[in-house]
């Protein structure tokens, strides 16, 4: 038995307060526990109610899903207030001769955690659930100092330290670059997002990514060189289950077969495009109208997981979609389209035989899920790293990006229809399907995915006593 297999670890996991982060952390926890390691998962089941309130933050808000995007900075400020409870948690964990945790594995936001953990003799590792290429694009502290970027146009091409690892097209568009500029400036929390990221990578022993060499060839070696710390893959942390292909698994665990899955059962194979833009996309009424009318123009079957955008309301009694969609849209598309305002079992939907493609906001988790099930994508990014992900997927030949105005990011129904038809209807769509199927074969290699997790455990054992 290897040392890694023989050593049982006690690992504390502490994700950022967003569901897109907590879910991959939970998957990591499950895989560590399955290998016999003890795992403590830290989050905030209404713990913020015990902390001093942050001005401007709604009562009870504990994750980014509870606030509009412009309030995310206040969630970070509130999360910084968890430093003291975390210190108390560690003090209690090592008190009275109890076993000291072997590791704290934490997210990008928790820059206050490493010094607290160090004071208690506990090493830290960072687990970043983002695309590795995004961190390489933003770069380490020393590279930013040597090649400062302060204007939107500075982010319109890959930085010098990423060439030729990143193709020229993998960059921000003009309407997206404001976020990248802002990431280097202090926000309402008093700390910039990049300072948080630099701090946690510099003060932790190694960094783990929810990615793999097959998805991002060459990026792990590049990041190891750039940050001068080991950079390793945890794999995609998504295991296709046999019962998902017929709509079971995730949807059936509630005790009843999901209604949306039942609707998919009645559709022809690979005839439906699944539409989902996540929970935090800053959609406008015009966005919703153009997207809806584009789907109508495309003439294909669709399942739209509709979420009411933050700050928008629908007419009383009309449901979440209500008056937010064009007048008569649901009636005109009835029979070939379903707008669903309730919960949608996304993994089960993407696994369903009736689904042929995914119109996505290009969140990294959704992108991984799409490729694991071999679904080509229509790419419609909105915030943060989604534009870089969209460009990366387009370069890999697994998706088509919806055409947008470079200045304000607006898009129209014709651009939506054209992208949907290229993937779902036209002859060159077969290329995207073929490339996505190849990615499915690679990412579905469970033996290889298990090896990535085994390497995570080996690093936890190897660097437990030896700093990098």
TrEMBL record:
Keywords associated with the record: Glycosyltransferase, Transferase
GO terms, molecular function: glycosyltransferase activity
Residues forming coiled coils: none
Annotated stretches, region: Disordered: 240-260
Protein's UniProt name: Glycosyltransferase
Gene3D superfamilies, A to Z: Glycogen Phosphorylase B
EC numbers on record: 2.4.1.-
Signal peptide (residue range): none
Membership in a protein family: Belongs to the UDP-glycosyltransferase family.
Native organism taxonomy: Eukaryota, Viridiplantae, Streptophyta, Embryophyta, Tracheophyta
